[in-house]
């Protein structure tokens, strides 16, 4: 039992009762299993359990990145966004790693930026067709040796709810999104587009 369900066409939802340790990012507090989280101390408790991070829709990317870094010792980290009317919307698994051959996407304002090597692309998150075309070009530029995952950079000045559009675009491209931390996971600002 993985705790995810898709049903008809729509976002994946995650069951908070799926046996995870649950970190909730509310507007005014962060909790771990319903108790105040101590982000300045190592993650305590059952180290063998996967962690589900549930962010409020307006949680900023920097705060989300801080929490994902805090729980990175867990065997698996799932990230979701709290949704009105139902279980949280599953975004992706999270990880902290360094891969040279990759496709990475990041959110800047209302735009999705993608890069692979020296290739750069940008499209408005509000224009799904342009996002899909831009992402297809970036994946093609990465080549055959490119991993099946696309790294979605978190930690910038974006809201958690914007990650729904980014991870959905990656899935439409036939790839699996993985949330990644730090500036190395985002597309450089000084590179040509």
Verbal overview:
The structure is a single chain. With 193 residues, this protein is of the alpha/beta class. The chain is 19% helix and 31% strand. It is built from 3 helices and 13 strands; from the N terminus they run ββββββαβββββαβαβ. An 11-stranded mixed beta sheet has the order 5-4-3-6-7-8-13-12-9-10-11. Strands 1-2 form a two-stranded antiparallel sheet. Strand 12, helix 3 (162-172) and strand 13 form a beta-alpha-beta unit.
Strand % is 25-35%
Q: Strand order of the main beta sheet, please?
A: 5-4-3-6-7-8-13-12-9-10-11
Q: What is the rounded distance between the termini?
A: 42 Å
Overall geometry: globular
Number of helices: 3
**Largest sheet, strands/sense/barrel:** 11 strands, mixed
Q: Count the strands?
A: 13
**Sheet/helix structural class:** alpha/beta
State Rg.
16 Å
- The average pLDDT is 83
From N to C, what is the helix and strand string? EEEEEEHEEEEEHEHE
Contiguous runs where pLDDT drops below 50 for at least 5 residues: none
Q: Helix content range of the residues, please?
A: 10-25%
Give the helices and strands, then pairings.
Blueprint: E1 4-5, E2 13-14, E3 21-25, E4 30-32, E5 35-36, E6 51-55, H1 61-70, E7 77-81, E8 89-95, E9 104-108, E10 111-116, E11 119-124, H2 128-142, E12 149-154, H3 162-172, E13 176-181
Parallel strand pairs: 3-6, 6-7, 8-13, 9-12, 12-13
Antiparallel strand pairs: 1-2, 3-4, 4-5, 7-8, 9-10, 10-11
Please outline what is shown here:
The chain starts with a strand and ends in a 12-residue tail after the last strand.
């Amino acid at each position: 039992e993985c705790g995810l369900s898709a049903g008809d066409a729509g976002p994946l939802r995650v069951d908070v009762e799926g046996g995870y340790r649950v970190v909730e990012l509310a507007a005014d507090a962060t909790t771990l299993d319903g108790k105040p989280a101590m982000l300045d101390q190592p993650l305590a408790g059952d180290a063998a359990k996967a962690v589900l991070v549930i962010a409020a829709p307006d949680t900023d990317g920097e705060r989300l990145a801080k929490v994902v870094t805090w729980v990175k010792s867990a065997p698996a980290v799932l990230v979701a966004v709290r949704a009105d009317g139902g279980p949280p919307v599953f975004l992706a698994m999270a990880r902290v790693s360094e891969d040279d051959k990759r496709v990475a996407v990041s959110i800047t304002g209302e735009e999705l930026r993608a890069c692979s090597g020296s290739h750069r692309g940008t499209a408005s998150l509000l224009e799904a067709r342009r996002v899909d075309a831009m992402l297809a070009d970036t994946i093609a530029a990465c080549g055959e040796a490119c991993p099946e995952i696309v790294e979605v950079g978190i930690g910038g000045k974006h809201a958690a709810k914007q990650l729904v559009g980014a991870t959905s675009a990656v899935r439409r491209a036939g790839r699996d999104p993985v949330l990644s931390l730090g500036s190395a996971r985002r597309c450089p600002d000084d590179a040509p587009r």
